[in-house]
Amino acid sequence: MVRRREGRRVKLELDPQRCAAPERVRRAMEAGVGSEPARLPRLEPEHVVVLNALHRSRPPFTLALGKSSLRLSVVQGSEPALPMEVGISVGEAAATLHLSQQGLAALTRHLALRIPLEQCAGDLLALWLEYALLGWIEPLEARLGCAIQLHAATLEPVDATALRIVLRVEDEAPAGDLALSLSAAALRSLAPLLESLPPPLAKPCSALPMTVQWIAGRQQLRLGELRSLVPGDVVLLEPPAKTLMIAGQPLAEAEEKDDGLHLLAPVSPTGARSAPEPAPLDDDSRWKQRRHDDMAENTQDPQAARPEAALDELPVQLACEFGRLELTLGELRTLDAGSVLPLKKPAQEAVDILVNGRRMGRGRLVEIGDSLGVQIVRLQIDG
Q1: What percentage of the chain reaches a pLDDT higher than 90?
Q2: Locate the SpaO FliM/N C-terminal related domain: which residues (predicted)?
Q3: What is the pLDDT of residue 298?
């Protein structure tokens, strides 16, 4: 096969011996490749910690406002129409609050105003809203050590690095939507508030596939001993402490009966896993060091010594897949260096999320600093 460059296109001329290749492989080989790969969506490293903390199943965050209580929760995968905007200053950092009519009404209902605030000019709207939220603002100022002020939204260009968080606010009236657009500086200022989030709700993960192995015995061999084995040799096996292994971990003892294996005791671990020592962090690598901690946030349970808690420590393999292609053995034999497989990346760098080899969700690839990550779009692990 010969390649000739013509401008930015690459023309593939097929060797006559390759003409017998299967039609779908041959068509892909003839279709030149000239486009530059699209850049991935980019996430700032400090955004990852916040996204992992917010995009978890939690009970609504209940806050008192006036004589009523409001329930706040993060809305995932939604971009509601939010026609009103108010600027926020957190110390020297800038943020923007976007509001729907129902969201504004929920935040100001305790004021019992005669005129709807959505009819007010931007500076007057900000003034009344700051007054309505003083019960929240003053404790936040004391905790963060900086002033928080609301003002009319500016017409400056939208910060491309701002993180947008959509919230739903509920009281006795229909729910309303809000959104916070946080600059990097505002994000750093508000980061301590993540510790106040309600503990995440545990997921049963009932659809997660796990491999169960029935172990007869095991033995440690040196490579030389393994190489020397020939048919007819006998290797002495040591009986395992627990004959059932789940995801590579010995977790249960069982005995064989006519209808199968019977567990002799509840599933339990043989030993605790030790936590690694934390490494010093810099700004670029902070998300790498913290991502496992963030994903496991608030999972420490006073009842962690229960036997079923061992299941939370089982290793799970997560893989991201652009796509797959089935080839017959005949088609596979025709492939050689330079062959092109008819596979294309999905739109927006979408990937299938495979958990223990089974397709369980969808995601999109993102750049995080100099590294690659996947942002979860859908994950169905509960059956």
Answers
A1: 20
A2: 206-253
A3: 47
284-324 pLDDT tens trace = 444 444 444 544 444 445 444 555 566 777 788 888 888 87
Give the burial string for 21-30 (b: 16+ CB within 10 Å, else e). Answer: bbeebbebbe
List, in order, residues 6 or more apart from 178 with CB less than 8 Å away.
82, 97, 98, 99, 100, 103, 107, 166, 167, 168, 169
Q: Report the predicted TM-score, pTM, of the whole model to 2 decimal places.
A: 0.62
pLDDT for residue 37:
54
**pLDDT tens-digit map of 11-41:** 434 444 444 445 554 555 555 444 455 677 7
What HEC string does the chain produce?
CEEEEECCEEEEECCHHHCCCCHHHHHHHHCCCCCCCCCCCEECHHHHHHHHHHCCCCCCEEEEECCEEEEEEECCCCCCCCCEEEEEEECCEEEEEEECHHHHHHHHHHHCCCCCHHHCCHHHHHHHHHHHCHHHHHHHHHHHCCCEEEEECCCCCCCCCCEEEEEEEECCCCCEEEEEEECHHHHHHHHHHHHHCCCCCCCCCCCCCCCEEECCCECCCCHHHHHHCCCCCCCCCECCCCCEEECCEEEECEEEECCEEEECCCCCCCCCCCCCCCCCCCCCCHHHHHHHHHHCCCCCCCCCCCHHHHHHHCCCCEEEECCCCCCCHHHHHCCCCCCCCCCCCCHHHEEEEEECCEEEEEEEEEEECCEEEEEEEEECCCC
